[in-house]
Amino acid sequence: MLVEKQLNQESKLNSFTKVILNLMYTGNWVNEKSSEFFKLYDLTSQQFNVLRILRGQKGKPINLQDIQLHMISRMSNTTRLIEKLRIKGFVNRVACETNRRKIEITITPEGLDLLATIDEPIKTHEQKVTESLTEHEANQLNILLNKLRTNNK
C-alpha cells in the first residue's frame, strides 16, 4: 500500500518527502514485527543485538564502548542492556585487571544456547518480513539504503 494511504495523507508529497516518511513508517513496522518475535524469547531487539555482538567476539571480552560502536541503535543505554542480560544469566561482566574502571563483557554458555535456539526461527522471521521482495529487489534496496547513509555522513 502507498505510504500516503497508510498515513491518510491527502496532499501530494514530493518524492524525497515520501522517501523519508516511507523509511520511518517501514522502520517502525519492521521494529514492531521484530518486537513481537523477540518477546517469544523474553528479549528486546537491542538485547539480541548485544548477544550477537558478543557471540561474534568468539569468547574474547569486549568493553561497553566497543559494544556500542557495533550496535544498530547507538542511542541504546548499553549499560542497562548489559545489566538486564547479566541478570538473565546471558552475559558476564568483569572489571579489567589492568584498568578497574574498564568493564569487560563476555557471553555465557546460556547466552550462546539462547542464540543457537533463535538462529533458525530468526531466519524464518526475516523471510516472512521480506517475503514480498525478490532477491534482486532486496539487493537493490540494500544498495539504495547504503547509498542514502553514505552520502549523508
Describe this structure in words.
The mean pLDDT is 89. This protein has 153 residues and is mostly helical. It has a 3-stranded antiparallel beta sheet with strand order 1-3-2. It has a domain at 20-122: Arc Repressor Mutant, subunit A (Orthogonal Bundle), CATH 1.10.10.10. The protein is elongated. β2 and β3 form a beta hairpin. The protein is built from 7 helices and 3 strands; from the N terminus they run αααβααββαα. The longest helix has 25 residues, at 15-39. It has helices spanning 3-6, 15-39, 45-56, 64-70, 78-87, 109-129, 135-150, and strands at 62-63, 91-95, 103-107. Helix content is 62%, strand content 8%.
Provide the fold topology.
Layout: H1 3-6, H2 15-39, H3 45-56, E1 62-63, H4 64-70, H5 78-87, E2 91-95, E3 103-107, H6 109-129, H7 135-150
Antiparallel strand pairs: 1-3, 2-3
Strand order of the largest sheet: 1-3-2
- Name the structural class: mainly alpha
- Biggest beta sheet attributes: 3 strands, antiparallel
Classify the fold: give the CATH topology of the domain at 20-122. Answer: Arc Repressor Mutant, subunit A
Question: What form results from the Cα inertia axes?
Answer: elongated
CATH class of the domain at 20-122: Mainly Alpha
Distance between the termini: 31 Å
Calculate the mean pLDDT score and round it: 89
By DSSP, the count of extended strands is: 3
Q: Helix amount, in percent? A: 55-70%
Poorly predicted ranges: none
**Second rung of CATH, namely the architecture of the domain at 20-122:** Orthogonal Bundle
| CA-atom Rg in angstroms | 19 Å
Q: Give me the number of helical elements.
A: 7
Strand content: 5-15%
Considering the protein shown, what is the CATH homologous superfamily of the domain at 20-122? Winged helix-like DNA-binding domain superfamily/Winged helix DNA-binding domain
Query: Helix and strand string, N-terminal first?
Result: HHHEHHEEHH
